[in-house]
Write a structure and sequence with these properties.
Elements (H helix, E strand, L loop, with lengths): L2 E15 L2 E15 L19 E16 L1 H10 L8 H8 L6 H11 L17 H22 L10 H13 L4 H15 L27 H6 L2 H17 L8 H4 L12 H22 L6 H20 L3 H11 L2 H4 L2 H5 L3 H12 L8 H11 L11 H16 L11 H13 L3 E2 L3 E3 H20 L9 H9 L5 H11 L10 H5 L6 E2 L77 E2 L23 E2 L11 E2 L10 E8 L7 E7 L4 H11 L10 E8 L2 E4 L6 H4 L7 E6 L2
Helix pairs in contact: 2-4, 2-19, 3-5, 5-6, 8-10, 8-11, 10-11, 10-12, 11-12, 11-15, 18-19
GO cellular component, one term: plasma membrane
InterPro entries: RA_dom (IPR000159), Ras-like_GEF (IPR008937), Ras-like_Gua-exchang_fac_N (IPR000651), Ras_G-nucl-exch_fac_CS (IPR019804), Ras_GEF_dom_sf (IPR023578), RASGEF_cat_dom (IPR001895), RASGEF_cat_dom_sf (IPR036964), Ubiquitin-like_domsf (IPR029071)
Protein name: RGL1 protein
């Protein structure tokens, strides 16, 4: 007989218990059996039933997934989720609980409240008195602890006391003596105690104070840089990126944690994420310094260095290293490099085409759809999937790729971490931490885990890399003196005098740049000086698009912490470099770790979602925290567009740093006092001082919209201009 299965799911509504709300889904499995020969048990004789006759059986099971609950209920659910068929719950909880609880609080509940085997027999239900129930509970506790140690062992790194690890070890000695788990915890404790408090690897240091003894900061030597083969540079950058990315602790990326990094007491928060940002900036600064650091270079020599970096970027693409690839592209589109019109004219046409194709990977079209799709496609492939519209570049790419394949070693994928940080910040801004009754909104954590799981997948893929550090290159890389933005701009002017007298110096333009946005909602971004690029293309050609429809972005990073700013040039209509539209993008702010972009052009995105497009164009749909599993998804609120009764505005404080913004989620129910209070909280000011401030929307350079004290912000605002607001003390 032949069998076939068909599974369907049906929304079963919600179940409410004391301290918890569950989504219920009914799983219906249809088992179909061909019965022409096996029909005797149905009363048929021989082959009397027609051949097409089938027998169907149905099995229905219930899946309960906790939607919201108290911390106590969420911890208890760790022990019952498997029985409720919520098989991913433990992983989701462990990856996200740091947003609402500490390891100590969770461990105490797990061990003292639910895992105390000595007192569990005194429970209300009689079956707890049985040995079988105690064995089941012991197995459940062991399963949770094993998953915790497997997935999040860093949670127990608490030098010098290691309170949680010692508590866990004591529990195991009393309840599971001589078990493998006890030995494992003892080994972990010894490992932590024998290690120094982990700091970021020294090779990614970029400031002079971080240099290794005996190493002196130096201006890049073109000859020394040229001596390194392109693939060697790419491999070494990938080696450094891999080492840092594998050490990223996923919960450090959560929006609720990462967005708090700028507070004084959190200067050491999320060190693993900060390390990747430092490395990203080091690569960007290195590109700029090698091109501009030597005054004596001729234009052709400088063009050769640009060509070399484009080749290195291409090698990074072959190695599936999107972090250094993006850093190099951002540097080449930085203001001081982008404006070198004559130098770009000396760059080979084929190489410029290669550069444009690499830049297109980070196009901001459809919520950076190209880079997102490519990243996940590459994550599950052994080697890079290279396509080129230019025949010569395609030949070169395939040749290099074949060399990689001949080595027989699989490759991992290093992502641009900013994409994930952006998504997590957006989720944190858009979804509430708590729902009605003060319950923790676990639906929000499930959504966050979808992003965290991608990070973990890519981290796992990085184990496939087999790269050996080249100390000669690493030492050269660390020795580079990074130019400040003012220095690189001055050197760029010296290299090529500005023919356009309308181009202003950075200092004179600072007052003109009104606003700059950030992809990290709820974080600070510093408005940079900006230089308009030449009217004509550095390399010739025409894109046929206006500067209002797309923008080229880039970042320059200063060596000085007080001067770290992101520079975003806007391309000319005729400029083929504009076609890269690298995401208006986003280099990291080397001090704050922000990713910023110019919002002067209509296509530059102020959030992870395209404010000018609907959900079908790249917005990530999200289920309402108050809806069941079967309810229709809705789109997240976005900046610069009112949708579904909500939107995101940016609020700066007047009289402080006018260019530092905080992103605020507002709905059509919010009035001035509510929005003002949230803005004050975001800016770390006293929320009780609401009456002392007025909220103003910036309409243009010389026009403002002042709101009455009790106005509805959503309906009162001008939705045809940028959603940029100022909070100003009343006269």
């Amino acid at each position: 007989s032949l069998f076939s299965w068909q599974t369907t799911f049906q929304d079963g509504g919600e179940e409410v218990e004391d301290g918890a709300v569950y989504n219920v889904t009914l799983k219906k499995v249809q088992i179909q059996q061909a019965a022409n020969k096996g029909a005797r048990w149905l009363g048929g004789e021989g082959d009397q039933l027609p051949p097409e006759h089938t027998v169907r059986q149905y099995e229905t099971s219930k899946i309960r997934a906790i939607k919201a609950g108290t911390l106590e209920k969420l911890v208890e659910n760790l022990l019952t989720a498997f029985g409720d068929a919520d098989f991913s719950y433990i992983s989701i909880f462990l990856a996200t609980y740091r947003a609402f609880a500490s390891p100590k609080a969770v461990l105490e509940l797990l061990l003292d409240r639910f895992g105390n085997l000595e007192t569990s027999s005194h429970g209300e239900e009689a079956n707890l008195n049985s040995l079988e129930s105690e064995m089941v509970l012991r197995a459940e506790i062991a399963s949770v602890l094993r998953a915790w140690l497997d997935q999040c062992s860093e949670d127990f790194r608490e030098p010098p006391d290691y309170t949680c690890l010692l508590k866990l070890l004591d529990y195991l000695k009393n309840n599971m003596p001589n078990s493998d788990m006890e030995s494992r915890v003892q080994n972990l404790l010894k490992q932590f105690q024998n290690q120094e408090v982990e700091a970021v690897d020294g090779f990614c240091s970029t400031s002079s104070s971080d240099q290794v003894d005996g190493e002196e900061v130096e201006i890049s030597n073109p000859e020394e840089f040229s001596s390194f083969q392109d693939h060697v540079v790419a491999e070494q950058l990938t080696y450094m990126d891999v080492m840092l990315f594998k050490r990223v602790v996923p919960y450090h990326c959560l929006g609720s944690i990462w967005s708090q990094r700028d507070k004084k007491e959190n200067k050491n928060l999320a060190p693993t994420v900060r390390a990747t940002i430092t490395q990203f900036n080091a690569v960007t600064k290195c590109v700029v310094s090698t091109i501009l650091g030597t005054r004596e270079l001729k234009i052709q020599q400088r063009a050769k260095i640009i060509e070399k970096w484009i080749h290195i970027a291409h090698e990074c693409r072959i190695l599936k290293n999107f972090s250094s690839l993006r850093a190099i592209i951002s540097a080449l589109q930085s203001n001081s490099i982008y404006r070198l019109k004559t130098t770009w004219m000396c760059v080979s046409k084929d190489i410029v085409l290669m550069y444009e194709e690499l830049s297109e990977i980070f196009s901001d079209h459809d919520n950076y759809l190209t880079s997102r799709e490519l990243l996940m496609k590459e994550a599950t492939s052994k080697f890079a999937n290279l396509d080129s519209n230019e025949r010569e570049n395609q030949k070169k790419s395939q040749k290099r790729l074949q060399l990689q394949k001949n080595k027989g070693v699989m490759q991992g994928t290093v992502p641009y971490l900013g994409t994930f940080l952006t998504d997590l910040i957006m989720l944190d801004t858009a979804l509430q931490d708590y729902v009605e009754g003060g319950l923790i909104n676990f639906e929000k954590r499930r959504r966050e885990f979808e992003v965290i799981a991608q990070i973990k997948l890519l981290q796992s893929s990085c184990n496939s890399y087999c790269l050996i550090p080249d100390q000669k290159f690493i030492q050269w890389f660390r020795r580079q003196r990074h130019l400040t933005e003012e220095e690189s701009y001055r050197l760029s002017r010296e290299a090529e005098a500005v023919a356009d007298t309308n181009i202003l110096s950075p200092k004179s333009q600072k007052s003109m740049v009104k606003r700059i946005s950030t992809l990290f909602l709820g974080t600070d971004v510093i408005t940079p000086p900006k230089e308009q690029p030449p009217k004509s293309s550095p390399v010739g050609g025409s894109s046929g698009e206006s500067t209002d429809s797309a923008s080229v972005s880039s970042c320059e990073f200063n060596h000085s912490e007080t001067e770290d700013v992101c520079v975003t040039p806007v391309s000319s209509p005729e400029d083929p470099l504009k076609k890269s539209s690298v995401g208006s993008d986003k280099g990291y702010d080397s001090d704050k770790g922000s990713i910023s972009s110019d919002k002067g052009s209509a296509s530059s995105k102020g959030s992870v979602f395209d404010p000018g497009l609907g959900p079908e164009s790249g917005s990530i749909p999200i289920r309402d925290a108050g809806s069941g599993l079967g309810s229709a998804p809705r789109a997240l609120p976005v900046y610069n567009r009112q949708s579904g009764g909500s939107c995101i505005i940016r609020v700066s404080m007047d009289g402080l740093q006018a260019s530092v913004y905080k992103s605020i989620l507002i709905t059509n129910q919010d009035r001035i006092p509510d929005v003002t209070q949230r803005a004050l909280l975001k800016h770390n000011l006293e929320p009780d001082a609401v009456e002392d401030y007025e909220l103003v929307q910036v309409i243009s350079e010389d026009k403002e919209l002042v709101f009455p004290r009790d106005a509805n912000v959503f309906y009162g605002m001008n939705s045809h201009v940028n959603f940029d607001f100022i909070l100003r003390k009343r006269a």
